[in-house]
Amino acid sequence: MQVSEIAGDITKDIYTDYFARCSGSESLMLYIEDRERGRMMTEVFRLLLEEDLQTQFGYLCFETKTHVAYGVEPEMYDNLFAAVANTVKQALGPMWSAEIDKAWKNRISALGQAIRSASAVHA
Questions:
Q1: What DSSP designation does 97 have?
Q2: How far apart are CA 17 and CA 44, in angstroms?
Q3: CA-based, 20 to 30 A from 20: which of 26, 66, 76, 77?
Q4: Tell me: the pLDDT tens digits for 47-59?
Q5: What pLDDT, in 10s, does the model give residues 65-80?
């Protein structure tokens, strides 16, 4: 079952969690409209579902280079991914299992590493 079927659009909940976790992130996104935040979240979900993150290396290099110009630090991504996982976990409630938790942790770790590698290209 999809989270959206249970909880609807969780984008605002994700950002609320993210801003609570990540000092300074809310001020960086202060002037970003909900539509753009939704687009950004679509990209996060796309990357979380991407089978081969190596195919996304060029995209991640571009995105991290662009985000650095706005003051985004690599650890901010980790906080965002943790907020996504936590929001999904809250939405799933008792359907969240140890197996799902492990899969999310592995995926977030892999995506975080891919982003750090991409960030290092232009550091």
A1: -
A2: 15
A3: 66
A4: 999 999 999 999 9
A5: 888 777 788 788 999 9
Report how far residue 33's alpha carbon sits from residue 49's, in angstroms, rounded to the nearest whole number. Answer: 25
Q: What is the pTM of this model?
A: 0.89
Structure-block tokens of residue 112 = 């975080």
Instruction: Give the mean model confidence (pLDDT) for residues 90-97.
Output: 94
Terminal alpha carbon distance of the chain: 41
3-121, CATH topology level: Globin-like (1.10.490)
CA 118 to chain centre: 15
Q: Measured between alpha carbons, how far is 89 from 94 in angstroms, rounded to an integer?
A: 9
| Cβ atoms within 10 Å, residue 120 | 11
d(CA 20, CA 83): 9
Length of the chain as a residue count: 123
The rounded distance, in Å, linking the Cα atoms of 72 and 66 is 9
Share of the chain above pLDDT 90, in %: 62
